[in-house]
Write a structure and sequence with these properties.
By secondary structure, the protein is α+β, with helices and mostly antiparallel strands. It is built from ten helices and nine strands. The chain is globular, with a radius of gyration of 19 Å. It binds a DNA duplex through α6, α7 and α9.
Length: 272
DNA sequence: GCGAGGCCCACCAGTATCAC
DNA sequence: GTGATACTGGTGGGCCTCGC
């Protein structure tokens, strides 16, 4: 087991005690990475989430959660609220606290960051405290930036772009252009030129989300701007982006952010 | 009374898993 | 890698509550 503490957070790698009985919650953002096989986490308000190999999850401050299962190794970084908020401000993101979506994601740059950190800490020799402090100063800033860039959340209006195989790239472009249309798995598979089983499998492997879930999350992110800056009804906003009724929109919003669209709108206006 | 939003439930499309 | 199938979760519609 290895725990490295730093003024901006904490890094933890362990191969024992991979399940937790107790609910946890504190004031930091948590970056959780699944390096070997499946990991399952549970949030008190948002249900369970499964991470496959190289998928990550970001938990917001004060989210009550516990880890149900981890394969072989737990990799977790706590990033202090103040660092992430400062980075978000410097990047000119919306003037509210970033809230990350409760979804599994995959990103090559974050996978590389984790891999580099593991190599560094597994092979360091006689590193002085000053050296380690300096290394972590920069590493935590890098992670905070990557989280804001590639973690899905309220600070974004579209899903972060990632490098995809060309067979998926065309489908994702079409979904982005026509997100308000009705799509079926068959439509997407035909566009990709593969059968729907292959397509669904590949899509999940590359993005961390199933095709339909990806589209729903994309639609949901699109609605955030309307919720913040207009007085349009929740119903009309939901219909605008392609949801067919308000109840499915409400359900998804609550599962992803732990609050309803009207609560989201209210919290933004309170903090403005 | 009316409209907006939330909750509940049955149905079915989409997803995960397993066998080949 | 592909296809079948059991399971999951999104959808649609009815009903309830709340505020105007």
């Amino acid at each position: 087991m290895m725990i490295v503490e730093h003024q901006n957070g904490l890094l933890l790698m362990r191969n024992d005690h991979l399940g937790e009985r107790n609910w946890r919650s504190d004031d930091s953002y948590k970056f959780i990475f699944s390096g070997y096989g499946k990991s399952v986490f549970q949030s008190r308000n948002q249900g369970d989430i499964t991470l496959d190999t190289n998928h990550f999850l970001i938990l917001n401050p004060k989210i009550e959660h516990k880890q149900l299962h981890v394969t072989d190794e737990k990799f977790l970084v706590e990033v202090n609220y103040s660092l992430l908020k400062e980075m978000a401000d410097q990047l000119g993101m919306v003037p509210i606290d970033p809230e990350f979506a409760f979804v599994a994601s995959k990103n090559q740059q974050l996978s590389s960051w984790v891999s580099f950190m593991k190599t560094y800490f597994n092979h360091r020799v006689d590193t002085s405290l000053n050296t380690q402090e300096l290394f972590l100063d920069n590493s935590m800033i890098q992670l905070a930036l990557l989280m804001l860039q590639y973690g899905t959340g309220t600070h974004q209006q579209v899903l972060p772009s990632i490098h995809l195989p060309s067979v998926l790239e065309d489908v994702v472009d079409a979904l982005k252009q026509s997100y308000d249309m009705e799509w079926t798995l068959d439509d997407m598979a035909i566009l990709a030129g593969v059968n729907k089983y292959q397509f669904a499998h590949l899509f999940k492997k590359e993005t961390g989300l199933s095709p339909y879930s990806w589209l729903q999350i994309y639609r949901l992110l699109k609605t955030q701007e309307w919720l913040r800056y207009t007085d349009d009804s929740i119903l009309s906003i939901a219909l605008k982006v392609g949801f067919r009724n308000i109840s499915s929109y409400n359900q998804l919003f609550k599962r992803v952010y732990g609050k309803t669209p009207s609560e989201f709108r209210l919290s933004y206006r309170k903090n403005r």
